[in-house]
Amino acid sequence: MKVYDGSQTEQSSTPERIKVGIAEYDVSTNGATLSTSGLGSCIGVGLHDEESSVSGLVHVMLPVSEEVNGGNPAKFADTGVKTLVRELEDHGADRSNIVAKIAGGSDMLDFSKNGSGIGVRNANVVEETLSALDIPIVGEDIGGDHGRSIRLEGDTGDLIVKSANRDSKRL
């Protein structure tokens, strides 16, 4: 018979949660859940390699970095996606196994409605960058006029998208 005397700690079956802020990224190799909120025109890019169980999430704000040296690569769609892919590879992922799921890119404050808002441009650059890296997008929830929060489950690669006044989606 096992007796709990207070010296033991209970193991939780709930995976660790890692919060990814705006213009930040993080990588999980232990099945942790990565989450970010405040996706309006920003894009959340979730990457997952099922073979190596490596996942990563980046929250990009702007389409293209104009800085040659320095700066925060996670702030921009082009450099943020490339940086995250390198980090996944550094943690054991194989690019040929990586798949992407993306969400965000709303034009909540675009009054011109001509399709050239920051959200649309962010989505286009994310898609172009992933294509250039030969990483397929297998799920997306892009555009519209509403904000989103996302959660990338590191053990499955599922991306759960929550939007105001809308049901959650599992990508």
Write the SSE topology.
Elements: E1 17-19, E2 25-28, E3 33-39, E4 43-49, E5 54-60, H1 77-90, E6 98-104, H2 118-132, E7 137-142, E8 148-153, E9 159-163, E10 169-170
Parallel strand pairs: 1-3, 6-7
Antiparallel strand pairs: 2-5, 3-8, 4-5, 4-6, 8-9, 9-10
Describe this structure in words.
With 171 residues, the chain is of the alpha+beta class. It has one domain (17-170): 60s Ribosomal Protein L30, Chain: A (2-Layer Sandwich). 17% of the residues lie in helices and 32% in strands. The strands form two sheets. Strands 1-3-8-9-10 form a five-stranded mixed β-sheet, with no helix packed on it. Strand 6, helix 2 (118-132) and strand 7 form a beta-alpha-beta unit. Helix 1 (77-90) runs parallel beside helix 2. The longest helix has 15 residues, at 118-132. The protein is globular, with a radius of gyration of 17 Å. Residues 1-10 have low confidence and may be disordered.
